[in-house]
């Protein structure tokens, strides 16, 4: 194996190990993939002005989000069907995350039961939630997450259905045999895109948040916010956190880079709730750039799958340890002794 000194090294090694259809499912974006590229380009042109003589020897990377201690200001983004990448699926991901530990946002479309993931997790475990047309299905998923002891719900709001991803369409991508969304009442689905058209709630509105509040007491974040106006509406509707995301460029190719959207969202939210960002984080300096522009923490998607492909739980741990080490070095070199404290849980009441 080539030496794995950067997250890009993990990606290159993963591309050699995964089948071309699975690799393309992971890497692809919507349409001409402009937003996928934009996420990276924004980080590639971003800089952080170093401060000097700050007396920093050992930066403190820890933070506190929604009442839980995080060893690092990053978490694993929700990604579906880890058993496509490694036979132990999300169990291996959770084991890899447990070492540091790194918080893990488990996808509704996990290929391993939530309870089994929770059994090996070592840090905060949240559920990413898709809202289904049949609210009974949504309730079923929430119930299993609660039973597994998950600490928060992250509602994905940028996916009325999975978008047209040309790489998948060209390959007529199907889930490999035996890969199932085991936490759904009807776990057998073959084509993710087709299933999403049939099962996802097609016309979500802000009312969904009030309904979710009526069925669970878990803190509620929304994932997929781009516009500052929507961030303000989310706060007004009483969310506990916001994730600035364009779904890793997988939903709408004209969506701006998330890093470019972040400052306006942070400005509008004005500390009412934590603001997280994902899309294009590929190194510790990227994490620091996002923090510098006002994010309280970030989520990391594809690199975790690359680690999983390279070495199961050990590969995930390798990716997360590397990111933590790079972040610590970036903070040291930039003269940032600690992560700015995130807002405490939102005091904003839900609108009637
Ligand atoms: C293979 C794959 C599967 C994904 N599955 C989900 C999912 O089930 N739910 C969700 O909200 N987002 C999903 N996402 C989007 C990620 O949560 C995240 O927004 C994105 O990957 C971040 O960008 P990055 O991969 O550049 O870090 C998925 C992304 C990938 C690459
Ligand atoms: C109906 C299956 C949905 C899989 C969702 C995965 C996802 O969000 C993605 O971006 O891919």
TrEMBL record:
InterPro entries: Aldolase_TIM, Alpha-hydoxy_acid_DH_FMN, FMN-dep_DH, FMN_HAD, FMN_hydac_DH_AS. Keywords: Flavoprotein, FMN, Oxidoreductase. FMN binds at residues 78-80, 107, 128, 130, 156, 223, 245, 278-282, 301-302. Residues 1-352 form the FMN hydroxy acid dehydrogenase domain. Its cofactor is FMN. Glyoxylate binds at residues 165, 247, 250. The keyword Flavoprotein applies. It comes from the Bacteria. Pfam families: FMN_dh. This is 4-hydroxymandelate oxidase. It comes from Micromonospora chersina.
